[in-house]
Amino acid sequence: MSTNSLVTPQWLIQNLNKVRVLDASYMPAGAYATEHIPGAAFYNFDSAYFKSEYIKFDLYPPEVFQKYLRLLGVNNNDQVVIYSRGAASGMMFASRAYWTLKTYGFTNVSLLNGGLDAWKAAGGSTNAETVKPTLGNVDVRAFNSEILANFEEIPFNHFKENNIDYLDARIPAQFTGQDPLSATYPGTKATGSHVTGAINFPMAEVIGPDGFLSQQEVDEKIAKLGLTPGNQVYVACNTGIQASVIFTALERSGIKAKLYNGSMTELAYRAPEVVNATGN
């Protein structure tokens, strides 16, 4: 079995009957019902997360998410392979589900690089059959605080003295302020477009037409960021989705990072005063 964060369509074709496959497609609505990899259960974002006061895709307590994973048929000894379709060559929503499972302590999980399109291009079949998994037995006990960050722990405006590198995965136009923050967050009192000290690293830097770029290519992109060895790395975006792509890329390159789940959706309304920088 593969222990890599990414598996190829060819690998999955050969091992389809040995793994638990989850389709984490979020958009367009109804895509899973139209076609999916045979045997894949539907990882429904509307069931896996909930909207809280400041966080669009908030995390349920571990005991609640455990019930959901069991409904998807996940067992303790399973290898789970996640895919999606659409944005970022099918990697955006799948990366979010990948990070989520890891956050709940389930580590035997991989992503299908290139998503459903790559699967089909490699000759993989699809169908529209409803999958009703047998109830799984997976145990979920606690959050992994090594990869999950909350608002209270991040010293905004004081990154340098606290040895922090903060990566913002939003598109450059949002980061610089070319696209006003108020266009995404009406009524925000923020005066800037990003937090002071943030480094823009959009997911387009690590994604190509066939999924994640090679590790060598991603390593070269990361090297240009000027990260300080030993610093705590945080990744954020608007809702924690795009940041999941960057989290996955960093992980493959051997860089540990915490994903700030609230991201700009939380900051724009909870602490707009820290969103005080513009430009590059």
UniProtKB/TrEMBL annotation:
Annotated Gene Ontology cellular components are: mitochondrion
**InterPro entries hit by this protein:** Rhodanese-like_dom, Rhodanese-like_dom_sf, TST/MPST-like
SMART domains in UniProt: RHOD
* One Gene Ontology MF term: thiosulfate-cyanide sulfurtransferase activity
Alphabetically sorted, this entry's keywords are: Repeat, Transferase
The record's SUPFAM superfamilies line, in alphabetical order, gives:
Rhodanese/Cell cycle control phosphatase
What is the superkingdom listed in this entry's lineage?
Answer: Eukaryota
Q: Which Pfam families match?
A: Rhodanese
Q: Which residues form the Rhodanese domain?
A: 15-128, 160-276
Q: What is this protein called?
A: Rhodanese domain-containing protein
